[in-house]
């Protein structure tokens, strides 16, 4: 009997959006609300593939404090060039490609809006593509596990468009050789960032995804005797209600970036490294007085399994309340109506698992997804 486990990954399809619009209820009626890991996709995706938390697989944020090993030192001079030309998204995108090629990075790489003058303080973590075996150094992924157990599988190429990915999966399925397919569909995330999670655009995108996945599943059932279908995601998406320009308030204190402190402004949090005690005291006092967010204690980081002794991800973390965007940030300059990266137990952070198979009660977190994969694949 030929069996296929089809895992369809949909970026940012959260529990709240699923509750509102529904998804795949005819083919995948079993549902589970899954807790995500704290951070962004750079933390959550490795958590899905390894079945472990960030403090075990060691991937958390893409940008880490490491002035000694920064591959961006030479970009410092770009800070002197006119920002109206060199800060354009298209220029930064092209430059990201050059840097990626220069350093032979195979993972996802993007400069976003990190200012050129601050880039030399940071290194980039995702140098290797973790969707291929050996991509995560600290532990194994489900793909390493498949290689080890001699289980033929197919993982989508995340560089391709969704249309291409669906066609490539269909072709692989038609050959009836693999036992696992990882169908990677990232575009819903972009749609919800741009239009908000509760929008006509979201509903339209879900409708077209439902059609595409249904067709792929039905095709698979003609080739295989049994197809286990799982729809999974990494995190949810919160509607953005307001924004806060933290950078402006920090800079107003008069301390020097680089000499007194280093900061990285993500879209929902700011991370700090300290060079001077009075800067630390005054900036911490400013953060402690803000009602739009909170400093995350080491105990909370430990409880979320994202505490790192080396401190390269941050010595102090300030996280905004759900729905507040740090804007402008190093990730973007514009207000957008949807964002993720808040506390894992904030209502819109939760992810989902949907399936045509019964989902065991113990599956509660995105780190549990891998257990279901292994169970599907052991003979
Ligand atoms: Zn996103």
Describe the structure.
This protein is α/β, with parallel strands linked by helices and 379 residues long. The chain has three domains: 194 residues, Alkaline Phosphatase, subunit A, CATH 3.40.720; 62 residues, no CATH class; 95 residues, Gyrase A, domain 2, CATH 3.30.1360.180. 33% of the residues lie in helices and 18% in strands. The chain is built from 13 helices and 16 strands. The strands form five sheets. It has a six-stranded mixed β-sheet with strand order 2-16-7-1-6-5, with helices on both faces. A four-stranded antiparallel β-sheet has the order 10-11-13-12. α8 runs antiparallel to α9. The longest helix has 24 residues. The radius of gyration is 21 Å and the shape is globular. The model has no long low-confidence stretch (mean pLDDT 94). The site of zinc ion (ZN) has 4 residues, from α8.
């Amino acid at each position: 009997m030929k069996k296929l486990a089809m895992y369809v990954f949909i970026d940012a399809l959260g529990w709240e959006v699923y509750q509102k619009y529904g998804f795949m209820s005819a083919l995948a009626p079993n549902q589970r609300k899954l807790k995500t890991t704290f951070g962004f996709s750079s933390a959550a995706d490795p958590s899905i593939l390894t079945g472990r938390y960030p403090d075990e697989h060691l991937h958390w944020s893409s940008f880490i404090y490491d002035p000694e090993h920064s591959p961006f030192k030479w970009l410092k001079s770009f800070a002197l060039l006119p920002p109206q030309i060199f800060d354009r998204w298209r220029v930064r995108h092209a430059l990201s490609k050059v840097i990626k090629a220069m350093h032979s990075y195979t993972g996802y790489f993007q400069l976003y809006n990190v200012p050129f003058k601050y880039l030399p303080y940071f290194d980039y973590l995702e140098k290797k593509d973790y969707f291929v075996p050996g991509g995560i150094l600290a532990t194994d992924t489900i793909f390493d596990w498949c290689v080890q157990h001699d289980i033929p599988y197919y993982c989508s190429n995340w560089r391709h468009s969704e249309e291409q990915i669906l066609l490539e999966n269909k072709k692989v399925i038609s050959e009836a050789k693999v036992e696992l397919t990882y169908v990677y569909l990232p575009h819903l995330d972009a749609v919800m960032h741009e239009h908000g999670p509760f929008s006509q655009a979201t509903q339209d995108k879900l409708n077209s995804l439902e059609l595409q996945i249904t067709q792929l599943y039905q095709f698979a059932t003609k080739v295989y005797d049994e197809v286990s279908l799982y729809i999974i995601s990494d995190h949810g998406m919160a509607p953005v209600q307001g924004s806060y320009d933290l950078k402006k308030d920090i800079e107003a204190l008069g301390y020097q970036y680089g000499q007194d402190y280093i900061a990285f402004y993500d879209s929902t949090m700011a991370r700090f490294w300290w060079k001077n005690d009075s800067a630390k005291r005054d900036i911490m006092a400013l953060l402690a007085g803000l009602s739009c967010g909170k400093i995350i204690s080491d105990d909370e980081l430990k409880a979320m399994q994202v505490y790192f002794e080396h401190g390269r991800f941050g010595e102090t973390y300030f996280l905004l309340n759900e729905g507040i965007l740090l804007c402008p940030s190093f990730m973007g300059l514009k207000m957008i109506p949807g964002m993720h990266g808040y506390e894992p137990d904030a209502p819109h952070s939760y992810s989902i698992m949907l399936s045509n198979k019964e989902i065991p009660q113990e599956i509660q977190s995105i780190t549990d997804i891998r257990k279901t994969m292994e169970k599907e694949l052991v003979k």
